[in-house]
């Protein structure tokens, strides 16, 4: 889709200004129902479009992404634009610099339409934890769009943006991409700079794209990946060989633990049918086992809150607080954080504080770090046997708004198939592969650490086979 | 988890909650901890903890000033809600 728009722009079939106005018109028509956006950046977008039109008129060359309209999750900083991360505590915060991903996209000329809704500080699977409102699933307005990057997923699914950025700590790109029926890619840990991403759990967080097609996701990833001096965990993987492979030489593994009870039967049957199609094109399919699969989620619910409790300690009310009624500094901290954070964020901070506190550290945090290594080793081992893994993205269809909000544990289980890739730091992608009624069915393809370009390539082939 | 323990955790976390909210959080934490305790079933005696998401090793950077890292203070100050003579105003500590 990006290439088509690019061609239209350079062939002067449409101007960038017309394109951007068209997208804002769609937003005007649809977003009062879907509620994907928290902030719109219309003036800046139109100003930028005008400059690009001038460039095209003068016969100058433009980049692949130049003039392409996109949205970004509200936990990424855009200089001069509000960044709330879906939280009351940052309601009045305007970013003072650009996140590296935003800077890169700006340099390429992509046009930001606005910032999208999300679960507060990216904690949730439905956007219901946003301090502002809940985004609706474009395919069924009574259902959730998934989360935490639900606004970004919904904006792409309802064609209010060509692509969008999200962040994925335990499934926050792939699960909403699945619920909304679009492509969502979680790159290997460290391949995209986290500078300017409001931190949730720093050893798990990664930024990635939502798009209509794998080709688009690949274009975006190529433009945002790379080493950044502002993020010491970032790395350049351009030297890692893109093993563009003929599907006949590829071995796909089906981890049996991902196809057991709890998985919706319709989702299971559709994926099995797709696997048959892939097999009929000459690929080898092999059943494999990842015995520690069921421990990935409990492991995540120790490591993630531990990092959350430490990362969110910075929100002390001194810089952007609006709370004035306190007796001393201590009281100000308590009131700011008690009122500024929502229930889920408070729950995770307290849980994280518990697992890190003296007396419990070894039994919880250290244990989880050991299990994390076991899980990562298990993935490494299985990738000696197979090239990629095919699994469901979510065990269920999008649930109804309100259905899980009072039971945190059942909400956490939404991430059961996605969280393993974060624990191990490996890349994974959501691919829509069918429908039941108007709700999308999806599969997830997981690749070895740093195999991002190969994974995207094979996903393009699979996208062709299953469509 | 009793109220005393919850109060201690809230004190460490610097979060003020109503007693109703405390009851709810105690209940939720019980459930979540019950769920994560299943990790104890796994034997991990000789397993080295995995302390981060990356295989990159620590290296020292050159000891020189990086303009990108220091030149944000102006914008930061502009976004502050309570500033006096270039300082953040905070309530008394004692």
Number of helices of chain B: 4
Q: Tell me, briefly, the overall form of chain B.
A: flat
Number of strands of chain A: 11
- Termini gap of chain A: 16 Å
Compute the average pLDDT of chain B.
86
Radius of gyration of chain B: 22 Å
Low-pLDDT segments of chain B:
none
Q: What proportion strand of chain B?
A: under 5%
Assess the beta-strand content of chain A as a share of residues.
5-15%
Overall outline of chain A: globular
In quaternary terms, these chains amount to: heterodimer
Strand order of the largest sheet of chain A: 1-3-2-4-6-5-10-11-9-7-8
**Major pleated sheet of chain A:** 11 strands, mixed
Number of strands of chain B: 2
Secondary structure blueprint with pairings:
The complex is a heterodimer of chains A (467) and B (94).
Chain A lengths: L1 H9 L5 H19 L2 E4 L1 H16 L11 E5 L26 H9 L2 E6 L33 H8 L5 E6 L5 H7 L2 E4 L19 E6 L2 H11 L26 E5 L9 H16 L3 E5 L4 H19 L17 H12 L2 H14 L5 H24 L2 E5 L15 H5 L6 H6 L3 E9 L2 E8 L5 H15 L1
Parallel strand pairs in A: 2-3, 2-4, 7-8, 7-9
Antiparallel strand pairs in A: 1-3, 4-6, 5-6, 5-10, 9-11, 10-11
Helix pairs in contact in A: 2-3, 5-6, 7-15, 9-11, 9-12
Chain B lengths: L2 H11 L5 H18 L30 H4 L2 H6 L4 E2 L2 E2 L6
Antiparallel strand pairs in B: 1-2
């Amino acid at each position: 889709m990006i290439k088509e728009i690019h061609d239209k722009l350079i062939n002067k079939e449409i101007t960038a200004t017309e394109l951007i106005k068209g997208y804002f018109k769609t937003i005007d028509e649809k977003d009062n129902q879907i509620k994907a956006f928290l902030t719109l950046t219309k003036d800046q977008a139109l100003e930028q479009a005008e400059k690009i039109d001038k460039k095209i008129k003068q016969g100058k060359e433009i980049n692949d992404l130049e003039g392409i309209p996109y949205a970004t999750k509200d936990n990424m900083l855009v200089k001069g634009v509000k960044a709330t991360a879906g939280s009351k505590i940052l309601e009045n915060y305007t970013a003072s610099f650009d996140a590296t991903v935003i800077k890169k996209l700006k340099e390429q000329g992509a046009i930001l339409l606005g910032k999208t809704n999300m679960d507060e500080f990216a904690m949730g699977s439905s956007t219901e934890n946003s301090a502002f409102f809940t985004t609706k699933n474009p395919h069924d307005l009574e259902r959730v769009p998934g989360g935490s990057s639900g606004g970004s997923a919904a904006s792409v699914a309802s064609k209010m943006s060509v692509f969008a950025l999200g962040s994925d700590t335990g499934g926050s790109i792939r699960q909403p991409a699945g619920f909304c029926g679009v492509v969502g890619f979680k790159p290997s840990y460290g391949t995209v700079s986290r500078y300017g991403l409001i931190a949730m759990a720093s050893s798990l967080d990664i930024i990635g794209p939502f798009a209509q097609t794998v080709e688009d996701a690949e274009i975006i990833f190529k433009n945002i990946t790379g080493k950044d001096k502002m993020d010491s965990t970032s790395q350049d993987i351009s030297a890692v060989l893109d093993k563009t492979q003929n599907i006949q030489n590829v071995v796909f593994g089906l981890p049996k633990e991902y196809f057991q009870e709890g998985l919706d039967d319709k989702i299971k049957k559709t994926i099995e049918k797709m696997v048959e199609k892939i097999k009929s094109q000459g690929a080898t399919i092999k059943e494999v086992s990842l015995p520690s699969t069921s421990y990935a989620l409990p492991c995540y619910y120790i490591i993630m809150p531990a990092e959350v409790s430490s990362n969110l300690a910075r929100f002390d009310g001194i810089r952007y607080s609006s709370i004035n009624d306190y007796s001393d500094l201590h009281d100000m901290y308590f009131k700011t954080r008690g009122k500024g954070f929502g229930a889920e964020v408070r729950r995770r901070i307290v849980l994280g504080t518990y697992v890190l506190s003296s007396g419990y550290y070894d039994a919880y945090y250290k244990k989880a770090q050991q299990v994390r290594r076991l899980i990562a080793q298990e993935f490494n081992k299985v990738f000696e046997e197979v090239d990629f893994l095919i699994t469901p993205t979510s065990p269920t269809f999008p649930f109804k708004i309100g259905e899980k909000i009072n039971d945190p544990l059942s909400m956490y289980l939404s991430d059961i198939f996605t969280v393993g890739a974060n624990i191990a730091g490996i890349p994974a992608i959501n691919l829509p592969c069918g429908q039941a009624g108007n709700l999308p069915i999806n599969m997830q393809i997981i690749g070895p650490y740093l195999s991002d370009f190969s994974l995207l390539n094979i996903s393009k082939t699979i996208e062709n086979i299953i469509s | 988890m009793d109220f005393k323990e919850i109060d201690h955790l809230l004190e460490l976390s610097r979060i003020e909650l109503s007693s109703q909210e405390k009851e709810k959080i105690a209940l939720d934490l019980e459930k979540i901890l019950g769920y994560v305790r299943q990790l104890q079933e796994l034997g991990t005696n000789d397993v080295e903890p995995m302390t981060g998401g990356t295989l990159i090793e620590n290296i020292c950077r050159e000891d020189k000033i990086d303009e990108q890292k220091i030149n944000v203070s102006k914008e930061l100050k502009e976004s502050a809600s309570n500033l006096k003579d270039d300082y953040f105003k905070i309530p008394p500590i004692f």
